[in-house]
């Protein structure tokens, strides 16, 4: 797992919104699905999964934009209302208790590396994936791949 041990702060492009992740992420996905490509305007999205209770809004407000997903459950993207930077998301099944923070919005994102590349069946052909990071064509079972500490946090989150 990547070295995500420090508290990290981040924000939007215009500086109106600031946030803090008060713990290391449970897991970091590099998602290559076509929806992430479309929403990010890039070849993939790098998301740090963290409990919403460990993510503090320090300054400003965010607006929630709901976008459709193939599952039909939708994704709520939290954006700066001024510059529209996507800061984090909540996905259908997990709802608002789990936040997927866009790693590119972290002030010092070094050290937040992907633990897994997902939906690689639709990755851009020019993207070369490292041999030492797990990849899956679609999704995976967290019980099989997440570290024990992350699984304990996830299980506690969904037991509430």
Describe the structure in your own words.
The chain has helices spanning 34-40, 142-145, 148-159, and strands spanning 8-11, 18-21, 27-31, 45-51, 55-59, 63-67, 75-79, 86-91, 98-102, 116-118. The chain has 160 residues and is of the alpha+beta class. It has one domain (8-159): Alpha-Beta Complex (glutathione-dependent formaldehyde- activating enzyme (gfa)), CATH 3.90.1590. It has a 7-stranded mixed beta sheet. A hairpin with a 7-residue loop joins strand 6 and strand 7 (75-79). It is globular and about 40 Å long.
CATH topology: glutathione-dependent formaldehyde- activating enzyme (gfa)
Mean pLDDT: 92
Share of helical residues = 10-25%
The count of domains is 1
From N to C, what is the helix and strand string? Answer: EEEHEEEEEEEHH
The secondary structure category is: alpha+beta
pLDDT under 50 segments (min length 5)?
Answer: none
What oligomeric assembly is this protein in?
single chain
Distance between the termini: 26 Å
CATH class: Alpha Beta
Strand percentage:
25-35%
Shape: globular
Instruction: Report the count of strand segments.
Output: 10
The CATH architecture designation is: Alpha-Beta Complex
Question: Main sheet: which strands, in order across?
Answer: 6-7-8-9-4-3-10
- Strand count, sense and closure of the main sheet? 7 strands, mixed
At the fourth level of CATH, the homologous superfamily is glutathione-dependent formaldehyde- activating enzyme (gfa)
């Amino acid at each position: 797992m990547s070295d995500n041990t420090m508290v990290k702060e981040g924000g939007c492009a215009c500086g109106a919104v600031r946030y803090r992740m008060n713990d290391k992420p449970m897991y970091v996905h590099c998602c290559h699905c076509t929806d992430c490509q479309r929403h990010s305007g890039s070849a993939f999205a790098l998301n740090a999964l963290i409990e919403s209770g460990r993510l503090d809004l320090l300054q400003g407000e965010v607006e929630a934009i709901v976008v459709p997903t193939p599952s039909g459950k939708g994704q709520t993207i939290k954006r700066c209302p001024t510059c529209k930077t996507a800061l984090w998301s909540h996905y259908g099944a997990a709802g608002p208790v789990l936040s997927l923070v866009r790693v590119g919005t972290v002030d010092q994102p070094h050290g937040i590396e992907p633990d897994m590349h997902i939906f690689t069946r639709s990755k851009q052909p020019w993207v070369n994936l490292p041999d030492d990071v797990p990849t899956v064509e679609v999704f995976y079972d967290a019980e099989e791949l997440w570290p024990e500490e992350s699984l304990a946090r996830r299980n506690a989150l969904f037991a509430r």
